[in-house]
Amino acid sequence: MxxxxxxxxxxxxxxxxxxxxxxxxxxxxxxxxxxARNPYDIEELAGTHPGRVLYQRTDVTDEESVRELxxxxxxxxxxIDVLVSNAGVSxxxxxxxxxxxxxxETVSTNLTGTFLCTRxxxxxxxxxxxxxIINVSSCVATRAxxxxxxxxxxxxxxxxxSRSSAVELAPKGITVNCLAPGYIDEGxxxxxxxxxxVWDSYRPRLLLGRLGRATEVGAAAVFLASPDSAYVNGHxxxxxxxxxxxx
Length: 247
Prior knowledge:
Blueprint (H helix, E strand, L loop, with lengths): L6 E5 L4 H12 L3 E6 L5 H7 L4 E5 L5 H15 L4 E4 L14 H29 L2 E6 L12 H21 L4 E8 L6 H7 L1 H7 L11 H12 L10 E4 L8
Parallel strand pairs: 1-2, 1-4, 2-3, 4-5, 5-6, 6-7
Helix pairs in contact: 1-8, 3-4, 4-5
């Protein structure tokens, strides 16, 4: 029970990798606030862990909605020990046909949402004497691919924002790290394996020859939230099984 007694706020926490991280945290004893626009089947998770799961409808691109999320978490559990900024969208398309609206939506959710959540939690964590911020990036933040310009650019920016945040917030006892999944059997990675032609082109790049498991991402997120990572700061932890790449 490495996270016994802590409270974590997870954006995009009701499905995909966010849900997997929430389940991993709960298994380690944490209380979790799952924030998202849609609750999906969060009641099932709450029923399995009574009193330790809370859903808060949140739009991470809206400053007031983010403020309400943090206030809700503190009101319910008294503190925020860990923030996982996981909410994200991908509106992929080649640059020539990518609409400005799709670009703005991607950057607003993935980057600005991370900024707003980070800024909103600083006061509470400082008052407590510290905390952990974990921003979810992606393997394509550092690997160029056709049709991912908006998503890749936003995630690359999240990684640099995380490093800058780590520098600024360390004196307050707050560490900031990034979690960068590769191709995982949940969320966007599942779409890759669902199309045989696409999967055939990607599989040779995976040194372990398979998609990662959502539980493996959850385990890495537990590490970054636990006392084991107390001296890890400003780091991008890649969870991709050894991902080779060709531009």
